[in-house]
Amino acid sequence: MVEIKAKQIYLWYGENDFEIHEKVMVWTRQFEKKHGRLNFFVFDLREAGAKEKIAVDLKNALQVNSLFGMNKLIVLKNFLSASAKLEDETKKMTVAAIEKNNSGFFLLFCQADKPDERGVIFKALKALAVKDEAEIKRFEAPRPYELKKWIEARAKKLDAFVAPGAADALAAAVGNDLWQIDRELNKLAHFRLDQPITTDDVKLMVRGKYNDVIFDLTDTISARDKKRTLKLFQDQIDSGAEDMYLLTMLIRQFRIFWQILEAKQAGALDEAALAAELGLHPYVVKKSLQYANNFTLPQVKKIYRKLLDCEVGIKMRNVGFEVMFDMLVAEL
């Protein structure tokens, strides 16, 4: 078992649910290796039907059963979310288990949502944490300027090597979605085997949130080149891209243009400052600045709203995608 000092009760939460999941899996494997599977339990309130059966199952899990040993690891997922709405009996059992803080009983609460600090379960956890008998820890996602180091460290864990520039390219393409970054790194590592992962590999293999096609489309839109815009879009669809994916990326990009142009009007011209303020990778800001200058702020707002109207028309009015996009381009 990992070294856990005197603490046996933990609350891990935060937007970095990837690393929370990883840490839970490490603990699970080490606990099962030492104590077996029979004393390990997981309860997730987000699973279908979980609330209806949880009272009985949790009660059984919290009982001391010397037949299988005294040590137990009980993982409680999403118990402290504002939307949890636990039954009173379940709350009482959980609070009682926290307050007893039995030796050998490891309670691990985890979730992405910020815990509801008004709830009785959180208050019980907080009371132990104040006495340093429980841990409450927030897992924050890496900031844009931290992603490069995170990617390089993750690649090292996979016995892969990222060549100079490739980590930046991957971060710029995917953003701070650590789940996707991990999937892409695994894919790239298998693709390159013992060779370094290069920027060209990332461009070839990764379908990210940001790519040059989106910037090319914004370029043709700014030039009012309707024929070229439609051709670029059709070429992407013919090559296997989903039409709604491309529309979503265009909406995202024009939202970024809007934010950048407003920030520039307010006097923020430094790329690093813009990246920090908008929570974007510096590469995305640098590239977006180049193309945002092709538009005025009123133009960006108009196009952004038309793109949203296009999305609504497709989703809510069941109008065909090509029809809606043709109408959008015709109005540029």
Automatic annotation (TrEMBL):
GO cellular component: DNA polymerase III complex
EC number: 2.7.7.7
Keywords: DNA replication, DNA-directed DNA polymerase, Nucleotidyltransferase, Transferase
GO-annotated biological processes: DNA-templated DNA replication
Enzyme class: transferase
GO molecular function: DNA binding; DNA-directed DNA polymerase activity
Enzymatic reactions: DNA(n) + a 2'-deoxyribonucleoside 5'-triphosphate = DNA(n+1) + diphosphate
Keyword Nucleotidyltransferase: yes
InterPro entries: DNA_pol3_clamp-load_cplx_C, DNA_pol3_delta-like_C, DNA_pol3_delta_N, DNA_polIII_delta, P-loop_NTPase
Residue ranges of domain DNA polymerase III delta N-terminal in the record: 10-130
A Pfam short name: DNA_pol3_delta
Family annotation (SUPFAM superfamilies): P-loop containing nucleoside triphosphate hydrolases, post-AAA+ oligomerization domain-like
Coiled coil: none
Every DNA polymerase III delta subunit-like C-terminal domain range: 212-331
Signal peptide, first to last residue: none
Family from the record: Belongs to the DNA polymerase HolA subunit family.
Protein name, as recorded: DNA polymerase III subunit delta
Organism: Candidatus Falkowbacteria bacterium RIFOXYC2_FULL_48_21
